[in-house]
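Weekend entry, working from home. Most of the wet-lab plans are on hold until the incubator is repaired, so I used the time to fold the two sequences that have been sitting in the queue since the last round of cloning. Logging both here for the record. First:
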Amino acid sequence: MSANSAEVPPRLEVVLVKAGRTKIRYPAELLRDDGERIVVRASWAGSGVRDFGFVRFEPGDVFTEYYWRGRWYAVKEVRAADGSVKGWYCDVTRPAVLAPFRSNADTAAGAKLVVEDLDLDLWRSADGREVRRLDEDEFAASGLAGTDPRAAAAAVAALDELESLALRPGGFAELLA
């Protein structure tokens, strides 16, 4: 399905898992799925305002989220309610899994996109002047390097790749095209 389709985009549920527990789940519209990359749009799912100091996520913000089945990250374009781009928030994750969703009655109720957060994040401001690696201390404290060294190495490589892309003149434009 393309973003320009006249059809109503199908709904799904994004489920972000961290350390084996659901961190957050929220509804989203499926914009595209080409077999490798899944693109969804969702409104800010947090309660109230989340002020990071360098950006505020707040009611009315819209996230266009890009997930990959073969990459260890997700890139989220963040727009304010007026449509202006705030920047890109990137999560280092295990590759995304899109699966059918079943309700308690075991009847089909859409799909769910499950993503396991590996603590590392990156922020790129809309003007590209600010690129920040985030939560490296949380990642170190998670113990992933000891329990799953392969995943830890993939996570660090993913953060390095995201930073390299973010520092380019076009930022994430080529990746998200």
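Second, folded right after the first finished:
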Amino acid sequence: MIKFKILPKRNPQDLAAPEKFYATAIADGEVDFEFLAEQIAYETTLTETDCIAVLLSLERNILRQLEQGKIVRVGRLGSFNVTLKSVGKNSLGEVTATDIVKGRVRFRPGKKLSKMSTELRYRKVE
């Protein structure tokens, strides 16, 4: 169950416009590598140390492949890829690598994760 609260927000493109109220998700804790490794070890025949090693290797390999410009598909969870933000130029020949402002990592959820997000339940907290 996802907890949420109501927050007023202004339109950043029209600061004179009245505030509107929006539902905002509230995180209910945090899970780290060690917790995930412990849970995976409990559900499998692997040790917690083995699970941590696999998760760290997964992290390193995802980073390495993204740095090489590859799309990284992580099973049914989803995929990661790099996108770019750059300065616009008037002609094709004017665009160079120096016009790239920054790279971003985008995550696209897989079918299971997308389906899960449509089936979430919510509870308002004060």
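Plan for Monday: verify the second prediction. The chain has a mean pLDDT of 95.
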